[in-house]
């Protein structure tokens, strides 16, 4: 049996190249994950990591590898600070809006001492949110505060119609901002499709309603080659084009989402007997040639995907349903690979 030391001595160059490939993959994954986690600052991190990734080659010296590691660490630190500041700013905007709303409500309550205490408590709760950092807690507090505010507003309606009208107008602004925040929270920033969290919520809702439905999982074929040969910007453009075509092929009541990376999911109110017709329509109208920009030139890219389908059955959990669809998708991918061989 050969020892590890001898193996390294005999295969040092091969091991070094494998380590470099892994290093480059990790750096690329960091860039992609940063975009998903916080798009406004993630794109800059991904762009800054590209030259570091490209510099890692077989001619790299130990000093270059150490310097690359330090630069990656510095970029991550800068991204972390930027992401934290971005989320803090967004939360601050919502809090500021609610504080303004609370002040308006408190001023209205001063006209009737019977409601003064409720409005003061409402204002105090909103001001206390400035110390919260968990977005779930912030949202729960906002919802409870909005319910309390609405209750007081209705109680005062008979005594001061003009003041209540102004208060309702402020509440409408708040509701619009809250709805907009909810929409963005459930949307994939690149493709504008529903994100994984919203898709899972849609599936769980259908399960709770005991409604017949099915899911389709799609995994784009050879998408990594597009990123490697055309660049990530071209890859992003292709994902956006494919997403628009995929969504247009389904009804407004169906849910079309990005599951992650180059994987997509469709939740449709249909039984197994209708699934094949939907898959056929995707193959005919969504798959095909797409035109993307690569630098100053245009390039056609043939796009197809492996598809797996599963129909919800009573007793299925979210996990078991998705596992069946995932297994079916990989069977389709293996079958396609054999047919091409």
Compact overview of the structure:
This protein is α+β, with helices and mostly antiparallel strands.
Model description:
The protein is an alpha+beta fold. The protein has three domains: 4-86; 88-185; 196-340, Alpha-Beta Plaits (2-Layer Sandwich). The protein is 69% helix and 12% strand. The strands form two sheets. The chain has a four-stranded antiparallel β-sheet, with helices on both faces. A two-stranded antiparallel sheet has the order 4-5.
| Overall body shape | globular
So, the CATH homologous superfamily of the largest domain?
Reverse transcriptase/Diguanylate cyclase domain
User: Which stretches are low in confidence, meaning pLDDT under 50 for 5 or more residues running?
Assistant: none
Query: Roughly what percent helix?
Result: 55-70%
Total number of helical segments?
12
User: Structural class, judged by helices and strands?
Assistant: alpha+beta
Order of the strands making up the biggest sheet: 2-3-1-6
Major sheet: 4 strands, antiparallel
Number of domains: 3
Strand tally is: 6
Under CATH, the topology of the largest domain is which? Alpha-Beta Plaits
- Which CATH first-tier class of the largest domain would you pick? Alpha Beta
Element string (H = helix, E = strand): HHHHHHHHEHHEEHEEEH
| CATH architecture grouping of the largest domain | 2-Layer Sandwich
> What is the average of the pLDDT values?
77
């Amino acid at each position: 049996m050969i020892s590890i030391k001898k193996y390294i001595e005999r295969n040092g160059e091969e091991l070094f190249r494998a380590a470099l490939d892994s290093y480059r993959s990790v750096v690329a994954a960091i860039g992609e994950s940063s975009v998903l986690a916080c798009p406004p600052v993630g794109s800059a991190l991904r762009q800054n990591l590209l030259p570091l990734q490209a510099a890692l080659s077989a001619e790299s010296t130990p000093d270059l590898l150490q310097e690359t590691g330090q630069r990656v660490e510095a970029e991550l630190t800068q991204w972390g600070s930027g992401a934290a500041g971005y989320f803090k700013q967004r939360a601050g905007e919502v809090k500021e809006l609610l504080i303004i709303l609370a002040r308006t409500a408190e001023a209205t309550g001063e006209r009737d001492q019977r409601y003064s205490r409720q409005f003061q408590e409402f204002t105090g709760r909103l001001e206390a949110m400035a110390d919260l950092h968990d977005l779930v807690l912030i949202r729960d507090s906002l919802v409870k505060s909005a319910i309390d505010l609405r209750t007081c507003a209705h109680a005062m309606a008979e005594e001061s119609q003009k003041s209540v009208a102004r208060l309702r107008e402020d509440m409408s602004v708040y509701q619009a901002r809250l709805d907009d925040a909810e929409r963005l929270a459930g949307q994939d920033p690149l493709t504008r499709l529903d994100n994984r969290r919203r898709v899972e919520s849609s599936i769980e809702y259908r399960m709770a309603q005991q409604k017949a439905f099915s899911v389709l999982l799609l995994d784009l074929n050879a998408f990594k080659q597009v990123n490697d040969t055309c660049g990530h910007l071209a890859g992003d453009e292709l994902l956006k084009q494919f997403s628009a075509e995929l969504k247009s092929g389904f009804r407004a009541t169906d849910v079309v989402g990005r599951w992650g990376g180059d994987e997509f999911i469709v939740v449709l109110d249909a039984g197994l007997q209708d699934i094949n017709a939907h898959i056929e329509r995707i193959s005919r109208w969504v798959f095909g040639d797409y035109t993307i920009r690569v630098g100053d030139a245009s390039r056609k890219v043939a796009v197809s995907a492996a598809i797996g389908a599963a129909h919800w059955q009573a007793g299925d959990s979210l996990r078991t349903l998705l596992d069946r669809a995932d297994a079916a998708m990989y069977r389709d991918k293996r079958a396609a690979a054999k047919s091409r061989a």
